[in-house]
C-alpha cells in the first residue's frame, strides 16, 4: 500500500470511529447473532425500524455491506464477520474502562447468598458472575441451585439474599422486586433436513402432528401447555426429560422436535449432529431471566452492589446471552 493510500485509509477509519456509536454496535451484534431484525429489535427493546435504520447507517459509515439479505433473514458478509470480531472487542474494552473508573467497587466487601434455577445455572450465570467478580473482587458470591418454589420461599425467609431465575414464572409476584436481565425468544428446534425447513412459515398446527420432546425443568411443561392451550391445541408429547442435552441428541437423531428458548440453543448435539431452529408464527411468550429479591428487604452492601451491577449491565448481558444463536440457514 502506498503512503497516500495508507493516509487515506487512516483518515477514513478516524471518521468512522468518530461517527459510530456504542448503540449501533450493540444493534449490529444483536442482528448478527439472531439473523433477524425482528429478533434483534425484541431483545434490544426497540422497534424493527430503529434496528434497520441503525444498520443502514453503520453500513454507510463502513462503506461496506455488513449483511446479505435473503428470504429467511440476514447473514454476515465477509466484511460483516470481520467487523463482528472487532465489535466484541470494543464491548470488552468498554467494560474494562468501566472497571477502571469504578475504583470504589474494590472497597465493597461481603457475601451475597444467591439462588439460581437449573436453567440459569447451566446457560446464563457463569458469564454474569465472572464480570461481576472482576469489578467486585472482595465480594463473595455463594450460589445455591434450587427450583422456583424453593427459591421464592428462601427469599421470603431470607435464606437467600437474591436470585437469578426465570422471573416470568414467579408465582408470588407481589412479594418480590425483579429486574429483567434478558428476554430469550422461544423457537422450534428440529433436525437438519427436516421437511419443515422448507416452509416459509411454521405454525403450531404444523408442529402438532409431530412427535414432541418436552423439557420438564423450571416450569417448562406448564409454560408449554399454557401457550398451546391458548391456541386450542396440544403437542404430541412422546418424551419428557429434565436433560437439555438429551433433547439435543434426540432431535438431532430425528426422534422429534421441541420449542425452547434461544438461551439454551446450541447448533450441535454431543454426537456432533446439527440442530436447526425456526421461528413459529404464533404468540409464544419469551423466557425472561431476571434478578429477584424480596420487596422491602434491607439488603447488605454486597447484595446492593450485585443488584446494581445487574441493572446497569443488563443491556450488554442481553446481547451476550444470544451469542450462541446463529442466523437461520436459507
TrEMBL record:
Tell me the ranges covered by the HTH lysR-type domain, including all copies. Answer: 20-77
The GO cellular component terms are: cytosol
Q: Name one GO molecular function term.
A: DNA-binding transcription factor activity
Ranked from the top, the taxonomy reads:
Bacteria, Pseudomonadati, Pseudomonadota, Alphaproteobacteria, Hyphomicrobiales
Q: Which InterPro entries match?
A: HTH-type_LysR_regulators, LysR_HTH_N, LysR_subst-bd, WH-like_DNA-bd_sf, WH_DNA-bd_sf
Q: Quote the protein name from its UniProt record.
A: DNA-binding transcriptional LysR family regulator
- Please tell me whether the keyword Secreted is annotated for this protein: no
Membrane-crossing residues? none
* Gene3D superfamilies, sorted: Periplasmic binding protein-like II, Winged helix-like DNA-binding domain superfamily/Winged helix DNA-binding domain
Provide the family line.
Belongs to the LysR transcriptional regulatory family.
The UniProt keyword set, sorted, is: DNA-binding, Transcription, Transcription regulation
